[in-house]
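Lay summary

Proteins are chains of building blocks that fold into shapes. Our project writes down both the chain and a compact code for its shape. Here are two examples, one after the other.
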Amino acid sequence: MLLNLCLLLTCTFLVSLTYREWPVSRSRNEHALRLLLAGMTTLLLVYYTESVGAFKLDLRYVPIALITLRYGFRAGAAVALPVVVWRLLESQSGGLVSLVNTLSVLGLSSLLRPTLDMTRLTMWDFWKVPIPFLGVGAALFVVPESRGLGLLAYPGMLLLHSVATLLVLGVLHTRLKLLQVTHDLRQQVLTDDLTRLGNRRRFEEELARLETGGHLVLLDLDDFRRLTDTHGPDESDRALRYVGQVLRDAAPDHSFRLGHDSFALLLDQPEAQVRAVVAHIQAQLAEPGAAPWAALTLSAGLATRLTREKPAELIHRADEALYLAKTNGGGRLVAVEHMPRRLPVSTLPDLRPRYSLWQAQRTTVELLSQRRPLTNADWQELLRLAVATLGDVSSGSLNIRQGDTFFIRAVQGYTPDLVGTPLSEVSQVSWYGQGPEAWRRGVPRVRRRQDIGQVWAEADARLGTEERQAFEELGTRKALKASLCLPVVLGGEVVAHLNLESTVAEDAFTQTAIQDAQVFAQQMAALLQLQERWHELEQLARLHGDLNLSADDQAVAAQLATTAHDLLRTTSTLLLRYDAAQDCLVPAAQAGPALGRPSTPALLRRGDGLSWQALDSGQIIRADRLADAPGAHLQPDGSTAGSAVMAVPLLSHDRQPLGALCLLRPAGRPFQATDEALAAMIASVGTRVMERGAHLSDLRATLEASLNMLGVALEARDLETQGHTQRVRALAQRMGEALALPEEELTALRHGATLHDIGKLSVPDTILLKPGRLTPEERRVMEQHAPLGAELVSRIPFLHPQAHGVVRWHHERWDGAGYPDRLAGTQIPLLARVFALCDVYDALTSVRPYKGAMTHEQALGIIMAGSGSQFDPELTVLFGKVVPAPEGAPGAGIPAA
């Protein structure tokens, strides 16, 4: 029986595979297939039956009962008939028993069928599962010699049939549940989140299945932008949800949302009924009310699918009808068959471009108004509209410049994997194929089938291996019959490529089609110009922030040169800084490729070159050719002689020279007035930061001098330690540089070293100048100079906080036996640990009231002996390497700086 059960479940799994979609198809062919598989299953179960005397025990009645419950008595009888005949031919008594059992299963299942829904079983239905099998095995009680066997076999057979039925139902329901979940997930992917209508992807799938004679209706809300502007995006979303509800009620499962306020219907009904559906939708939306979305008007364009018509062609015709509906007042339905080929002027006096172009212009205006960086999805939508507008265009791509490289930002009709592919400028000029001059003027280029292969080959030769392989794998590439390339030009520079291709006709790009494509190119140029302005503002803001955070003059110069190079797309940018000591300009930073840079002099005397001309006049100077620029200090070579040049003065608020920016561009891309304005803004930011840097340098120098004077004044109380402050500061600086400390920590270390003994101002002279050893009470007074000194320096403005730590903790010990806070190990700040070595070394090698000066070797030996107890072991090793033996007589210490 175990084999029988396994065969039953295997066959059930095979039957479950006939269910391939949800909702379950009611096809007669599929029903017939399931009946056939059920009949074969019963025969297979009988073939592998288990014999008990004259009786056969198997699970043949399970599929018979399930088929009867699902399809009725006749279907169950058809499945059972072959098995009954087989048993009658095999054994007359066995056949009669099989016939009785089969009739009981068919009869009880038929009686149970009205009360048991096999597709929606619940826990309360499980008690009904054994009922169809109550008659199976009852014959055992009729024959006297088998009554004993019946008492044992009948309950087991009833239980086994019931369990097998539940297992079979479990397999079938699992398959159906999987189909249902898959269907629900697919519906979510194909559903617009806001309106719960089908999205564009589902629309394209359903449109591809629309049969000849089916109707496409494109719908568009009239003047919907006014509602958004007046009531805000929240009310706009509520209005769109309301429109979605109206469309779902009027045409459930046949309505779609294509764009922000664009919708579609796909209806396989007579045209009169389609018109009635559209009229009902328009009437319901136009009903007056208090809500902001009341009294909406809806324009509609209707097209009927023709024989062998492609989906794109059907959309194009409905698109044309929708445009006419909107340009004739809106709120109406226009059908394609009612559009004459030549419309009288009196009928439509104001005939504008096709609706797709109008829709693209509206999309462009919306993107311009949003004031945000555009994404690949935005460019994809514009490209899609361009391809949809031109009837015979099947594919296209949009390549946008970023620096010296073009990147594919959108594709239509090709694999999305191409998005992001980099393309060099040289390869784009080769693909254009009409020379760089026409390319920079934005002249449209059209190629036919016979020329496209040669152009592809020339462009491929300029690509890298990965890019070439990506294009070679495009199957549609060989099918192209016509290609249109439109360079998008801004300020005399190609900033994008709009490529449109046709696999339909070689004459796809007529003069009208080219003009339509140029409209899209103009819109893309406008968007790119806005993006460029946003990018410039972001770069300038970032430059201002970065420069304000930078205290390094070299970093400021490098950042300024790099930003000018990126924003003005130069081949080379040189920043010259004014050196007041020599009264000349010296190179400070350069950006751009190292190859091809013109040679620059080591310094530029006052009055030499364009830079000094710009500084003397206070004006930006431009020249189209470096070789022809009067007094150009950049020495042109063969590759840069024809470059355009621009010199930008950097002047302080009182018109004093700070430096100059020298910018180069390739020949044929001269600097324009817009470039001059941008350069002036960059110079404005740079001069402010350079002035601030000079001012801060003066303040730092003043602060250093003041602190040094204070440190020297402290030595006046202890004449025998003169020079101690300068020596320990110089030694601490060398240790900090050996540790590669950041500049601000080096400054904190110097300041802490300068003021480390400021707390001795509070120590009486009798203790400070005592020649002998201090008493315990005197030592406690002396040890108070560290915390008192930290309190004093905390009141000095602009002093780095880490300098306070040097003053307070430079007498702490690595083993925790120091003062004032008994810190140990790494609890002691790094700068204090560094300075402790310097302070002790100088004390050992200097004369004090209570001792003489040690030699360098003696002092270093004592310090090494204190490694791990008084001093940080790692810093002690470094100290031994950093501090060389002083020149001169032993015991002279380190010479004062």
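And here is the second example, written the same way.
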Amino acid sequence: MGVGTYEGYIKRMEKMKPNIYLDGKCVDRMGPWNEAGFWVMKQCYDMANDPEYADVCTATSHLTGETINRCTHIHQSQDDLLKKQLMTRLVCHHVGGCMQRCMGTDALNAIAVVSYDCDKALGTKYHERFNKYLEYCQKHDLICNCAQTDVKGSRNAKYKRAHEQPDPDMFLHVIKTDVDGMGIDGKPCKGVIVRGAKICNSCAPYVDEIIATPTKFMGRGDEGYAISFALPADWDGLKLMALPGLHHKRKHLQAPFNHNGDNESLTIFDDVFVPEDRIFLNGFDGPDVVQYAGYMALMFAHFHRHSYTGCKTAVSEIIASQAALVADVNDIAGASHVREKLCDIIGTAELVFAAGQASAYRAVRFPNGSWVPDEILTNAGRRLAGHNIYHEYEILADLTGGICASLPTEESFFAPETAELCNKYIMRNPAYTAEETHRVMRMMEDKLCDAFEGAQCVAGVHGGGSPLMETITMMSRYDLEELKKIAKYLAGFDGVDCPRYERATATPRAMLDRFKKTQN
């Protein structure tokens, strides 16, 4: 199969057991609460099957040699990283926001690296299990979600370690080992039982698989919390507390942007059995396995932030396109302040994308064959995007004007008694018809005034890690002491020559090595 279809995906969704909870009631996947997410996934599948986009949306599996959806691919070259970034950007343009499959892609790539490194260092068997799982995902073009962010409980520093929380369930953890149960294939097998919850879990209510990864470094006493695995999204004990994100309903002016949306989840693992062959990290397999939890958390974040250099570039470009269009509709496109505002958005988009490109060009090949981009550049790009997102919305609101918050109802532009007057008085630039003007302003209402876009604005800051996390990552990798030698030389310090300063590529491996030293 390799490259799946939307029709095949929907058939899988129809067969899944109801385990989504909406307003306290258990519902299935086929209701209106998932229709916006389904629409986004349709664009992902359709573009992968479109010859115009095959060069970026498909790849060749390193396991089977078959053509597959790039969303299930493990990056085998610098070119793969660049094409993943391009794919993300192009799909985001089509859907008017997040493409949503990036979480699964980045989780697969993170586990591919970490499971191999752990096996080579400790003699575990995670990578073999993972490759079997990966081949299964590739064969059926499954949509995966990454459940990484634990609810975390108290942020008080005295509860620094996961196992120190007053309630041990605030981080996902193993509560029983060596348990008898049923595997994915329905056959008896060994496994573990886990308990806990993951939050900020976008698109979980309409994916095939949920991949759980740790959220941070784990130390002594945290063995049960160093756990990674994958399960079908309707597996027994999984409960998805949903929050649908939808634009305002339309009756007359259907448009691609209006169909975009998602469904967030507080994903609860209520004493869930995990078959052994679906476990890719388990701290109970040995005391040294625990340190790989943080390594996996950082590797996922790293790949995800590289995806964001495609995604957030696209978001900025969408905002820039909307800003340019609404300025033209308002007949102010030639004003100098408009060009200045548009330049702010375009400049951010170009720099964020360039950071992702440069990080791919500086990528290094890891022992398993994966290519891992430069960590400082991916974080620099994501940090810039997070800092500027509110400014971009501010520009869009400024160029639109207050009408986006006070537009008469859609029906008023079509009802016999009010249509003529409403269409007459919405006119601005005579180069645009009344309907075109109405369409643009209705899009601005969606973009600036509805609940879904309010959430997307916050996601622009915090999705994949807030600017603070990028700051922490960058400054923990950057060698300031070596950098300061340049200033010492320029200031004339005795015995200090100007160094040949060429920053080496940084990856999460450095933090694993540092963490190991603290544990010895």
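What can we say about the second shape? The two ends are 48 Å apart (CA to CA).
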